[in-house]
Amino acid sequence: DMYIKLVKSFPELWGYLYAKSDSGTPGGGKLAGLRKKLESACSGALQDILDEYRPDHIICTHFMPQQVLARWKAKGRLETPLWVCVTDFVAHRYWLEKGMNGYFTASAENVFRMRRRGLDAEKIYPYGIPVIPSFIPPADPVLARREAAAIFGLDPDKKTFLLMGGGAGIGDMQGFAEDLLKMDYDFQLIVLTGNNRELLENLQPLAQSYRNRLLPLGFTDRVQELLAASDLVLSKPGGLTTVECLAMGKPMLIYSSIPGQEDVNADYLVENGAAMEGPDSSGLIWRIKQALDHPELLSGMSENALRLSKPYSASDILGEILQLKPQE
């Protein structure tokens, strides 16, 4: 909750803290002592879970439990093999605890970066960021689009944009939606508000004004169908959202990046041609206009997204951990 409030109200402060804490060597820094004390004070339940489940392996997809467990491992309190799966496209220093059995990351570039920061070169694998199997590209994208459009009452033959703001609905999504719908183009807009109920309610009058063009939705576990029905995803570049879009071959228009980890995710996508980024509301509208006027832009970004995607990352990671032979 504190993190969400911080990035909503003081994003520049979060960006400063992210950059400041990323300097120096892994495990160091002036704030490290205080952070470690806070983490230790909150980790009693974690020990109870380990005692109850007695896992054969532990895979950390967030740096905080990784750091706690790394300290336990160094002190001899933990003998279970400990693995780390970095869920952003560039690893912050907090991910770089030494002594892990192995690290999994999004790309070969990130392997290079992590090696330069002192991690064991033989233990870093560019297997990607895992997604659940439902985000694997459909065998027949046209059929998948029509089936998904039918679920939500959309027109499968009309350009469709999906606007998201993360689970908390961060960013001026209502203002952005209003600006989009004022454009002199015929397209459908899905606005996914996540857990932001106030935003969902505020969008209802707008949906009445733009019948059959605006579909506001709250939290849903059917994001894969929404992606299948969409031509472009307008979103913050959170790690998992980004990977899901790549796996489905969906181009992104990035807005309201949280300074820090989302900025580096955005840079990665734009540099590799899988996304556009708008510096402000006018820039976003211009890029939407370009995408509508030049459909080849979207098709090109879609191809790049599929090129970057690693939809079988979870299987590759588990195969490495369990020493299974790769599938033919």
Overall average residue pLDDT: 88
Q: How many helices?
A: 15
Supply the helix-strand structural class.
Answer: alpha/beta
Please list the strands of the largest sheet in the order they lie side by side.
7-6-5-8-9-10
Low-confidence stretches: none
Sheet having the most strands: 6 strands, parallel
Q: Total number of β-strand segments?
A: 10
Helix content: 40-55%
Strand portion: 5-15%
- The backbone outline, from C-alpha atoms, is globular
Could you tell me how far the N terminus lies from the C terminus, measured between alpha carbons in angstroms? 45 Å
Order of helices and strands: HHHHEHEEHEHEHEHEHEHEHEHHH
Radius of gyration: 21 Å
What can you tell me about this protein's structure?
The chain is of the alpha/beta class. 48% of the residues lie in helices and 11% in strands. It contains 15 helices and ten strands. A six-stranded parallel sheet has the order 7-6-5-8-9-10, sandwiched between helices. Strands 1-2-3-4 form a four-stranded parallel sheet, with helices on one face. Strand 6, helix 9 and strand 7 form a beta-alpha-beta unit. It is globular, with a radius of gyration of 21 Å. The relative contact order is 0.12. The model has no long low-confidence stretch (mean pLDDT 88).
